[in-house]
Amino acid sequence: MSIELGKFNTLQVVKTVDFGLYLDGDDQGEILLPSRYVPEGVEVGEWLEVFLYLDSEERLIATTLTPFVQVGEFACLEVSWVNEFGAFLNWGLMKDLFVPFREQKMKMQVGKKYVIHAHLDEESYRIVGSAKVERYLSTEEPTYQSGDEVDILIWQKTDLGFKAIIDNQFGGLLYDSEIFQTLYTGDKLKAYIKQVRPDGKIDLILQKPGLEKVGDFSQTLLQYIKDQGGSTPFNDKSDADDIYATFGVSKKTFKKAVGDLYKKRLIVINPGGLKLV
Prior knowledge:
This protein has three helices and 18 strands. The radius of gyration is 24 Å and the shape is elongated. The protein has helices at about 215-225, 240-245, 250-265; strands at about 10-15, 20-25, 30-35, 45-55, 60-65, 75-80, 85-90, 95-100, 115-120, 125-130, 150-155, 160-165, 170-175, 190-195, 200-205, 230, 265-270, 275. By secondary structure, it is mainly beta. A hairpin with a 3-residue loop joins strand 12 (about 160-165) and strand 13 (about 170-175).
């Protein structure tokens, strides 16, 4: 058995003490699970799924809490404090995640959020974060097909749209002309592969290509109107090209969705556009 620092491990309880449990860490020795994280009724011999990290004294320690990011993953985290060595980000555990200055694109500020990658520092064997995200994106050839559903993390705004991290592995791009909802850095959502280009770059879209189900788009349109403050100048008289550029659907599908929402008394239609009831 080999344990993995910065990830969840399933370990056996070998000893109970007043301040917690000791787990079998194989060649790493016994690992403490502090009493505050011990599930009720656990006994010696049972197996627990725990996350392993280093405490403030660089000792291996276990927790049953789920951190916001594990080693090998990307996440958007908030800076809790900064010192002369770097920034410390809240990742849901007692000890904050350290991001050295050399791993920052710009000097991180307390209270702001940044997309980072968590990894093990080869020299110190500490779990650290890096805002130099590009370095950790996969260079392997993607095997996605057009229409595949993926999980994405919104990474950063560009002149073309939003860069996103796909399935904790690849980089992708959502174009402004095909985004029909408000997005922010750190958002996690479902998306679809629009195409994988010959150079391996991936284009994304928030609605499945070629799929124009009125029921699905009705909900998309309703959310769009909510995001716009309860009204939108789009209506059934709007130009088809403008509708497609904004929503990625045909005018026929748009009009059916408008009718669907109107029949459900969720919107009203007027010459100035659509408005929530």
